Amino acid sequence: MTPRRISLAPNANLSRELRDLISVGPATVRDLHSLGVRSVSQLARCKPESLYKILCRKAGVCIDPCCLDLLTAAVAQARNPKLPAQRCVWWYWSRVRKAKASAA
């Protein structure tokens, strides 16, 4: 197994691959590819909620909302290569989503 490379260069989105993002495994890369997202720079321009809704529509079922949290973590990393480590994991975004839901 090759270690993941994470570049913090100014043009980091050009050197990082989707699989380099924390919490993004092969299944998520396949999902992103099925949505037409093939690069970190493309992902940075996406809205996680839109990606999630399209995945649910394609699957024909409401996918576990933790998938939304994972997509949110991936997009956040794509937008900010210096994102603090605790915000790179899906469960951080799960807590944020649940807190928003309980406040509403």
What does it look like?
The structure is a single chain. This protein is an all-alpha fold and 104 residues long. The protein has one domain. Helix content is 56%, strand content 0%. The protein is built from six helices and no strands. It starts with 11 loop residues before the first helix and ends with a helix.
Write down the Rg: 14 Å
Distance between the termini: 44 Å
Helix vs. strand class: mainly alpha
> How would you characterize the largest beta sheet?
none
Outline, from the CA principal axes?
Answer: globular
Count the E strands.
Answer: 0
Number of helices: 6
Please, what is the average pLDDT? Answer: 89
Reading the helices and strands in chain order gives: HHHHHH
Weakly predicted, low-confidence segments: 1-11
As for the number of domains, it is 1
**Fraction in beta strands:** under 5%
Helix content: 55-70%
What would the keywords be for this entry?
104 residues; mainly alpha
Give a topology summary.
Layout (H helix, E strand, L loop, with lengths): L11 H4 L10 H9 L5 H5 L3 H12 L6 H14 L10 H14 L1
Helix pairs in contact: 4-5, 5-6
In short:
The protein has helices at 12-15, 26-34, 40-44, 48-59, 66-79, 90-103.
